[in-house]
Each structure stands twice: as C-alpha cells, then as structure tokens.
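I have been asked to look over a protein record a colleague put together. Alongside the sequence sits a line of tokens, each denoting a local backbone shape. Please read both lines and tell me whether the tokens look consistent with the sequence. Take the sequence as given and treat only the tokens as open to question. I have pasted the whole thing underneath without changing anything:
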Amino acid sequence: MTKIFKYTACTFLGVILWFGVTAQNLAERLAKLPDVVSVEKMEANSFFKEAFILMIKQPLDHKHPELGSFNQRVVLSNLSESSPVVLITEGYGGEYATRTKYLNELCPLLNANQLFIEHRFFGKSVPDSIDWRYLTVENAAADHHRVIELFKTIYHQKWISTGISKGGETALYHLALYPKDVDISVPYVAPLNFSVEEKRHDYFIRHLAGKDSERRKVALFQSELLKRKSSLLVLFTELCKEKKYVFKTSVSEIYDYCVLEFAFSFWQWGSSVKDLPNSNGTDQEFLDFFVKICSPSYFDFESGKSTFPFFIQAEKELGYYAYNPKPFKNLMELSNTTDYVSRLFVGPEVHLSYDPAMSLKVKDFLRKDAKHVLLIYGEVDPWSASAAKAPWNPQVVKIVQKHGSHRSRIGNMPPKQKKKAMRILTKWMNS
C-alpha cells in the first residue's frame, strides 16, 4: 500500500505541475505553431485568463503559395483549453479586438474562448503591395480554415463561428466552403447579395421598414432636404471644406447621394422618427440631423481608405445595394445612380467584373447541406432585405428581432426570442 500511495502522490503532483506549465507557457506553444510569425501578450478582458495578438503567415493565393505571402492578425483570448471556441470572422479591420474591453457576446453565453481573425487586406493584415486578384471569398475562407487547423491542435471542444454584418457574411462563405471546420455558426445581420447594386433594399425601405406613417415621415424629411437644398448646400459645403473631405464627384451630387443614403442609414441603425426635425425647423437643425444620420464622410476618399477593400469585394463577389432617385425626380438633380459603387468608391482605374458564384454556392448550401446555423436579423434593418434563407432546412434557424436594427444581438432580444436562441444553441452545443 505504501508504494502505491507514493506512486499516486507523485503522479498527482506531476499532473499539477504539467497543468501549471501548460498554462504558463501558452505563449510559447502558440509561437511554435507553424507559420506563427509573432506572439504578443496583451491585457485580457476580465472574463478570460490571458490574451495574445498573433501574426500568422498566410499565402496570397492558397492555391499557389509560391506567389508570396502576408501576415494576418489574429487575437486569442484564452479561457480554458477544455472550453469551446468562438471564432469571429471579422469582415474588416480588427483594431478594436486588441482592446481589453472587447468581448463577443457568445463567449460568456457559451463559456468559450475567443479567437478573432482580421480579414485579409484590412487593418494590419495587408501585404507589402496589394494585388486585388487575391482578395477573394475563396482565399479569405482558406485563411480562416488555416487558422482553425492551427488552433485545433490546442482547443478540442466545440467550435462556433460568428460575425456581424460583413463578418457574418464572411462566416457564411467560410461555412459553405469548409463545412467541417465548425460545429455551429451564428451570423448576425449578414447579407447575401446577388448583384453589385441590389434593388431589394430600396423596396424594403419604401414598403416594409417600420410603419407606413414612419416611412412617410422619413420620405418627407428627405423631400424637405431637397427643397431646402439651395440654402442647406451652403452649410453642407462649408462642413465638407472644414473636414477636408475629397469626393470623386461634385459636392452637389454628394448632397443628393447623402439624401438617398439617409433612409438606408436611418433604418439600418434603428433611428426614431420622433427625432426628425419639425417641418418648421431651422436649416441648421435640418443639417445637423441629416449629417448625424448620414455623414458625407461616407463618400470621402480619405475616410474611406480603411474600407476601400470592401468595395473591391462588393464589385467582384459580395454585391451591395442600389439607390433609387425616381421618388425624388422632381426635386433631385441626380437622375441616374447606376454604377455608383464603381464611380464613387472604386474608381475607373480599377477594372472589375461581378461574379455571383460564391453567393449562389452559399444559397444552395444553406438550403441543402447546412447544419446548426442560427441566423439573426433586425426587423427594420434594410440588410434584412437580402437576408440568407433556408426555408426547407430545419437545421438553419432564422430569428428576426422585433423592431430590431443592424444592432440586433441575442443580448438585446425580447425575452421570448432570447430564450429561443439560447435553447437552440444549448441543444446544438450538447448534440
């Protein structure tokens, strides 16, 4: 008995030491993963034990790695190696994920680690020289697949992919191309477009967003902006000069584009018609509310540099939404907005052609093969017009938050919808 006790005690002590070393040396283990270029410790959110910023070498073209590489930023917040992993497929830059306060809502809901991937060609994940041929849905999905392969050597529990807006769209593309990478996917407010300038969003804004009376008030405000254009344009131009905005067309046209964009932005972010200025409000009151909802910075060349790669993607594969000046044809000098994405955001020097193949692949995948996908949308969000659909697949569940906007999340859902979401996730986590 004495010998057995001594052996057991030593074994127990060894287990304690092994777990201690493992926890202390996670940074070293991360640094030893293939293609990890650097590991930097950062201050972790209080929900996690530790956090790291990694740069991981990725091929410019996964099918032809000999063509070169770039370093992709990945942020890991570690809770436990025995916990599941929430994978955030960000669609843009990821600077916010390096801040201590950042915490994806699914992590505390599912008691999970957090793994954040900045999208290729955004933020710090940019090659020395950019060739837009390599900014594709397929390459981005392969980036995510490669990161998952690396981290699955450490984390062996359930994997849940998620993302918001373009990030949610990115999660859907990744899922369709690599369906075995994750166990569950929760895309938030994710569009699925099939043309560069989709018309479904305009129909939604004019016929479906909010109540009839609310839509009329928004349209009347837009009309009033156009009726007051001669006086408001003076203030608008002064603002643009003060902010040093640079546009690819005249300030007068940008004013009209902002009027068209106003309705989309108003509903997207869940604004209230109660906040619309009175019809007898001053020009300054009208301008202030106008630019609060739709700032001309949206069309500014300098302000748009960080999101410029998105418009390349929109022109190539992702698509976007169209404007419709016809309801304001007697008030607006702008009569034709066709190809505005190319003219205002991309420029004639970049020649691109749209291919819907990847969006169609996602559409087909969701209807036939997808499993454990929870889609979340907001009722008044115009992006809901191009929401992903899978009406005959019971493994794909869509929850549309009542009165919800582009800010719709599980945490701000009405109690019944929140319970439904958590019931579904709990069932899938335990399956």
